[in-house]
Amino acid sequence: MTMTQRKECTFPPLGGWALIVGASRGFGAATALALAKAGVDIIGVHLDRRAGMPAVDRLKSAIRETGREAWFFNMNAADERKRYLLIREIQRRFEERGNNDKIRVLLHSLAFGSLKDYINSDLEGLVNQKDLDMTMDVMAHSLLYWVQDVLRADLFDDDGRIFAMTSEGSRVVWQGYGAVSAAKCALESHVRQLARELAPRGITANCIMAGVTDTPAARKIPAYDSMVRSALAKNPRGRLTQPEDVASSIVALSQPCTYWMTGNVISVDGGETHCG
User: Fold this and answer.
1) Do 105 and 28 contact (CB within 8 A), yes or no?
2) What distance lies between CA 31 and its chain's CA centroid?
3) DSSP-assigned states of every residue in the chain
4) Of 218, 21, 195, nearest to 108 (Cα)?
5) Is the dihedral of CA 204, 140, 247, 48 positive or negative?
6) Is pLDDT at 275 greater than 70 in this prediction?
7) Is the model's pLDDT at 272 over the cut of 70?
8) Cα within 13 Å of Cα(266), Cβ side
């Protein structure tokens, strides 16, 4: 095996359920499958049109082939009413099973925000208040609302894990990334506060900062090509991060022995950020 190849990881069975918000592609999809292989049943929240549903169906089939449940819900994850109804539905299904089921892992991996400039030469097509409010709500604030609703329904495991996907763009400037950068900063702040307030319950909260990864969301960033060139030049392993690299790390961080790790921004990038 060369240093650029991805290693397959094995872990003791975790059990429980994972609620993955943004489950149909990229980090969410890879993590759903990795957690299923680690013995976790999956609840996936995603928003896809008809053209995207075959990929969702393939993911569900792959999860079920591991012997785990795959409950997927196609909805706007930032819609308060739909979130409330879904939590009630999960609660109902858990009660029907009668197994004292709980959510052990909650992953927030929503990638939907404005990629407009703040300022450009003609002052046209700039980010506006509606764009900023939407980006902040979807990519930052919705994490808090999901956590609150899961707690209200008493669905969290006592040793639960919360993960939220951030990026280096929270601290460096990329073209067109200003609104998303602001949302990532807010997301990291929410995670720190959740880590502090959930510590007495035994629930941890951490941000995962992946290296530059070829995902559908990343390809929409105006500076994507230059980001890729920079990442390949800096990464000691000479390749981009892959969603499966991040998924393996999340499975590892979901183990019971990581109970003392909380409130962090954890780089999963092969050394790209700090060693390049």
Assistant:
1) no
2) 8
3) --TTSPPP-------SEEEEES-SSHHHHHHHHHHHHTT-EEEEEE---GGGHHHHHHHHHHHHHTT--EEEEES-TT-HHHHHHHHHHHHHHHHHHTS---EEEEEE---------SS-TT--S---HHHHHHHHIIIIIHHHHHHHHHHHTT-EEEEEEEEEEE-GGGTS--TT-HHHHHHHHHHHHHHHHHHHHHGGGT-EEEEEEE-SB--HHHHTSTTHHHHHHHHHHH-TTSS-B-HHHHHHHHHHHTSGGGTT--S-EEEESTTHHHH-
4) 21
5) positive
6) yes
7) yes
8) 20
Q: How far is CA 5 from CA 1, 16, 22, 47, 240, in A?
A: 6, 30, 26, 31, 11
Model pTM above 0.85: yes
The single-letter code of the amino acid at 168 is E
CATH numeric code, 17-275? 3.40.50.720
Summarize pLDDT for 195-252 with one digit per residue, the tens.
999 999 999 999 999 999 999 999 999 999 999 999 999 999 999 999 999 999 999 9
pLDDT digits (tens, 9 = 90+) for 28-48: 999 999 999 999 999 999 999
3-state secondary structure 241-273: ECHHHHHHHHHHHCCHHHCCCCCCEEEECCCHH
Please state, in angstroms and rounded to a whole number, the distance separating the CA atoms of residues 20 and 105. Answer: 8
- For residue 33, how many C-alpha atoms fall within 13 Å in the half-sphere facing its CB? 21
